[in-house]
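Reopening this ticket.

The earlier resolution said the output was attached, but the attachment link was broken on my side. Pasting everything inline this time so it's all in one place.
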Amino acid sequence: MRVIKLLIPLCILVLGSGCAIDVSPKAFIHQDEQPLQLDTSSLQKAIQKDEAQVSITTVQLTNAQGLELVGVAVSYPKAKANIVFFGGDGQTINSGSGLIHRFGQIPANILWVDYQGMGASGKAEKLKVANLKSDALQVYDYAKEVFPKRLPTLVHGLSMGSLMATYVAAERPVDAIVLDGALNDLPSVVTNMMPSWSRIFTTLDIHPDLANMSNVDAIKDYHGPVLFLVGEKDRITPVAFVEQVYRAAPSEHKVLYVIPGQTHFHGMKQEATIQRYREFVESLK
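Inline output:
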């Protein structure tokens, strides 16, 4: 995720004086200057390499603000689940559509829609977390309409997307959650990205829209199946952070898989991760 951009204007410590870091939606959540043309070339290349039979549909949804949300729905033969994917901050279909084909190895159908203000989706004049959450529910509802109802529908949240996944699970009867590099709580993640020597001098000025962004709190009332994925070498949401969320989950059907050698954002690259994911999906039956 792009929390590190909060730290670019590093506070200059003068004579021991401290500083405050602005943790606002504008500073915390990436926004492109303008919508881009949807590009699924990396997905197309991956499909061609495997000679896979896949159906790709461009998705265009108009949200409550009148913005156009753009994404793709990809269907695989003999799919075992439907997955609604919520990416990390700044992660767009254009920059990583090849990731979709990794889910196809489960195999699973997948819906990925760019967040408003990112990638191919429209941008609001002012970004509000409440609107991102509303969009997430709309995307999930769309998946329930278009994907086979006989299959379980999972919400998969990567990094910042984990907050969207737990929110949707609190508002909709999802069949399972996958939390990939999950944030425990916002202050912990931002502090973790700061140089250790600067922490004693620095305070966080967290905007009210972000104050309640905590997976530790959000998951406390979710009793359904949960798969936790985290890279062994993840420095943004380290294993200890994800373990906090794991312990807070009351579910009797929860699995934590620490991915050997992996960092943030790259867990699905390993075949072992795909196999663990496949086993989790099969356990839902």
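Reporter confirms the inline version is readable. The beta strands are 19-23, 55-62, 68-75, 82-86, 109-113, 153-158, 176-180, 202-206, 226-231, 254-259. Residues 6-10, 12-16 have pLDDT under 50 and may be disordered.
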